[in-house]
Design goal:
The chain has 582 residues and is of the alpha+beta class. It has five domains: 83 residues; 116 residues, Immunoglobulin-like (Sandwich); 97 residues, conserved putative lor/sdh protein from methanococcus maripaludis s2 fold (Beta Barrel); 87 residues, Elongation Factor Tu (Ef-tu), domain 3; 146 residues. It contains eleven helices and 33 strands. A hairpin with a 2-residue loop joins β28 and β29. The longest helix has 44 residues. The radius of gyration is 49 Å and the shape is rod-shaped.
Length: 582
């Protein structure tokens, strides 16, 4: 390619680069024109007012005289932070001049907009007359500054315009030189290469001042302020309740684990080596009744053992047959002696008295002999060797009503006497095995009763009574095991669950308390989130105490301080991540 042609192409490339650069400097991005600088680039000004009923937040750009302004008003209940809908807000701005206006509700709960134009600059006082239902109040905001019209109107940046004019001037000069043939295209392209970047540099530097991304701050320390805009509070459902002085029963909370009492657990092993001979075997979770067959173990007998068992069985049958014959003969003897005795009774006036006595003695002996033989037969039957089939089969039966907690029996499996086949548990009552600190031993031993709660069953409470206390303290934790008996007739509780046991250890005391839902854990510490200002909270470290009726006694907050009870998780997440900053 000829140098002259290359220079022309390079010149056209430089010309094509100027338009995007100028467009980016003005933030056009092929979008509609931006709003005036006073509405977009200046910070939002927030003011606050509150009473016993309402909390009012005002937000607007810096106000300027003789300009149409729109003010956002966020109205919340002072105690609960609940957004208030359907209120009437009449606003009066008094200062160098007086202006009145009404706020209109928006589609968002608790958010209203007011439009006005202040004719003169200066310091104004706002009096907001608020009516909601049967509540009415006046809220005052002082020192609202209104700038003059000239200082309050932001001017667009002149840097893009100056840069554009400079670029056009350079391009015009280059074109003039080419037209007059004073310089060739190569020289003009070199001139533009030097001058155009200089004109664009200011715009690039100006655009670098924009921060398109938010930087995350470090996690908030306990006690540090946590800013949260009122709009975000409404969106996240942040609600507050004032800490209050309450009568709370003195309780000690014990942590522990649910276990079945040892007398209500039985382990069933195979009585003999053999195999599981039943297809239908009990499984984990099955409810069983006392005497119910869970499985059958069939003993495997060798040939010699089977012959020996059969021989013993034949010998027993022979001896039992002889015994039955003796009983039959004894019954005949009793019948004969009874007939002789009856005959002697009829002839007692004729025969000698000795004959009657002899007949009675003979009858008694015959009856005693028969009774003895029958008793011998019964004992013999109980000691009789079983049949071959019965000798080989051993049923595994449930010793009481309960639930199969463990099952290790499979049809056809070979088992040894040491093999655990089943563990059956009676779950109608459970132990809550709790750890009692040394300092609380006396109080807990006197309390006798407590209320159990478990995380798996929120809102459910179970009554427990002290069953026993251990005798040796754990050397490491300095705690003693206490066993509380818990009724579990509905079978809601399960062995192995962890729970909290609230034990009443004294009378009522007047303390500062908050709803239990306000408690959270942050950085390993128990905290509540306290409202510091309308748009600021702080995580306050507290020491939880006794709880009663959903309220928890706390050390670390004062009566009247508003603590967050709803939206605690969202605030905790904000504190852990750190609030966003621009």
């Amino acid at each position: 390619m000829r140098p002259r042609n290359f220079a022309w192409l390079f010149l056209l490339g430089l010309l094509s680069m100027t338009a995007p650069a100028l467009a980016h400097g003005g933030e056009a991005h092929d979008e509609p024109p931006a709003a005036p600088a006073s509405a977009t680039t200046q910070a939002t000004v927030a003011s606050y007012a509150e009473s016993e009923s309402f909390e009012l937040t005002l937000k607007s750009p810096p106000l300027a005289a003789k300009r149409h302004e729109t003010i956002k008003l966020l109205l919340a209940d002072y105690q609960t932070n609940q957004p208030i809908e359907g209120a009437t807000l009449e606003l009066e701005f008094s200062g160098p001049s007086t202006v009145t206006t009404n706020a209109t509700p928006t589609a968002e709960k608790g958010i209203y907009l007011a439009s006005l134009e202040l004719p003169e600059p200066g310091s104004y006082q706002l009096v907001a007359s608020i009516t909601h239902g049967d509540q009415a109040d006046l809220l005052t905001v002082d020192e609202i500054q209104v700038a003059s019209a000239a200082s309050g109107t932001g001017a667009p940046s002149r840097t893009p315009l100056l840069a554009g004019l400079g670029a056009l001037a350079v391009l015009g000069a280059g074109g003039l030189l080419l037209a007059r043939r004073r310089f060739g295209p190569t020289a003009v392209a070199g001139l533009l290469t030097i001058t155009l970047p200089l004109g664009m540099a200011n715009e690039v530097r100006a655009h670098a001042g924009h921060d398109h991304e938010e930087a995350m701050a470090a996690p908030v320390a306990v006690g540090a302020p946590i800013p949260l805009a009122k709009e975000s509070q409404f969106l996240l459902g942040i609600r507050t309740v004032p800490a209050a002085e309450r009568q709370v029963a003195q309780r000690t909370t014990l942590l522990g684990r649910l276990e079945p009492p040892t007398r209500q657990i039985v382990a069933l092993h195979a009585p003999q080596a053999g195999r599981i001979a039943t297809r239908e075997v009990a499984d984990v979770g099955d409810r069983v009744r006392k005497g119910q067959v869970l499985a059958v173990v069939e003993q495997v007998l060798s040939t010699s053992e089977q012959i020996q068992l059969a021989s013993e069985r034949l010998k027993y049958q022979s001896e039992l047959t002889q015994l039955e014959a003796s009983i039959s003969q004894a019954e005949q003897d009793v019948a004969k002696t009874r007939a002789d005795h009856q005959r002697a009774l009829k002839l007692r006036d004729i025969v000698a008295g000795k004959s009657l006595v002899d007949a009675e003695i003979s009858l008694r002996k015959a009856e005693d002999a028969l009774k003895g033989l029958k008793g011998q037969r019964d004992r013999y039957a109980r000691l009789a060797p079983p049949s071959l089939e019965a000798a080989r089969r051993f049923p595994i039966v449930a010793p009481f009503d309960g639930v199969v907690a463990e099952a290790h029996a499979t049809f056809g499996e070979q088992v040894e006497p040491s093999k655990l086949l089943y563990r059956v548990v009676d779950p109608r009552t459970l132990w809550m095995v709790a750890d009692v600190y040394e300092r609380d031993l006396a109080k807990v031993s006197r309390a006798k009763r407590g209320v159990l709660t478990v995380e798996a069953l929120p809102g459910e409470k179970f009554q427990a009574r002290l069953s026993s206390m251990g005798t040796l303290l754990d050397e490491q934790t300095r705690t003693l095991k206490a066993r509380f008996l818990v009724d579990n007739a509905q079978d809601k509780l399960k062995g192995g669950m962890f729970g909290r046991l609230a034990v009443e250890v004294g009378g009522n005391a007047r303390v500062t308390a908050v709803p239990a839902s306000a408690l959270a854990e942050l950085n390993g510490k128990s905290v509540v989130f306290v409202r510091v200002s309308p748009e600021t909270f702080a995580a306050r470290e507290v020491v939880p105490g006794s709880s009663d009726g959903g309220w928890v006694a706390l050390e670390g907050v004062k009566a009247g301080e508003r603590v967050v009870t709803e939206g605690v998780y969202q605030l905790k997440s904000t504190a852990e991540k750190g609030p966003a900053r621009r």
